[in-house]
Design goal:
This protein is 34% helix and 11% strand. It is of the alpha+beta class. A 3-stranded mixed sheet has the order 1-2-3, with helices on one face.
Length: 231
């Protein structure tokens, strides 16, 4: 499997195509798919040319969709399986929001930190086994600084173990039709057999925004603080 960044542009507020793009690439025709069909978890990709890159984007894989309809506006090599890094956390976040909606946890639930979570490394807030944070605080840390320690701690809390939580991630990916995806962890640190595609990230991003639009209360935060420290 080739290494590389998966670039997914899931633009929830896209209403019109920028005129500068249309004029600069007048030979490219945006998809004319029927967008009146019933919205499902899958994105509408029929008849999209995915083998060329007429906009000459500097990436190995990309996709641009419209959130409400799932219409694919542009894609290139969107099914290539690549290492997602911290984009992995989109699925972890989805399962956290689902657990909240099902009453399994609340935003005020206190989440302990295990030795495993404390040892994650990479992007983190240096969570300690001596402290607990609320789900609300954990979500801030995950969405703002991509905290590996926090996402691991809350994954263990919801799933019992990180392994169980990762099984939940893979089951949810299968449910969503994310056929290019397999998870090995909840945080995204590179690991063999841990991959996804920009197409699947588009599916997941759309599901997250449509099912739990309140997540934007976290993903739109520019700066905040936890434990009297900026994040």
């Amino acid at each position: 499997m080739k290494k590389g960044f998966v670039i997914t542009l899931a633009i929830s507020f896209l209403l019109t195509i920028p005129l500068s793009i249309c004029s600069a690439y007048s030979d490219y025709t945006w998809s004319t798919l029927d967008v009146t069909q019933e919205v499902s978890s899958n994105i509408s990709s029929d008849h999209i040319d995915d083998t060329s890159n007429p906009l000459n984007l500097d990436c190995g894989s990309c996709i641009l969709i419209e959130q409400s309809t799932g219409q694919v506006l542009y894609s290139y090599n969107s099914h290539e399986k690549l290492r997602p890094a911290s984009v992995t956390k989109l699925m972890s976040i989805y399962l956290i929001m689902e657990a909240i909606s099902q009453g399994k946890i609340t935003y005020d639930t206190q989440i302990p930190c295990s030795e495993n979570a404390e040892s994650m490394g990479g992007s983190q807030i240096w969570l300690s086994t001596t402290e607990q944070l609320t789900v609300d605080e954990m979500l801030k840390a995950i969405c703002i600084v991509s905290a590996n320690d926090c996402v691991t701690a809350i994954a263990e809390y919801i799933g019992g173990t990180e392994e169980n939580f990762v099984n939940m991630m893979n089951e949810k990916a299968k449910e969503f039709g994310m056929n290019d995806t397999h998870y090995k962890n909840c945080h995204g640190i590179d690991e063999d057999d841990h991959y996804t595609s920009s197409y699947d990230i588009a599916i997941l991003s759309r599901k997250l925004l449509n099912d739990y639009p309140e997540i934007t209360n976290y993903t739109t935060i520019y700066m905040d603080s936890l434990r009297d420290r900026k994040i």
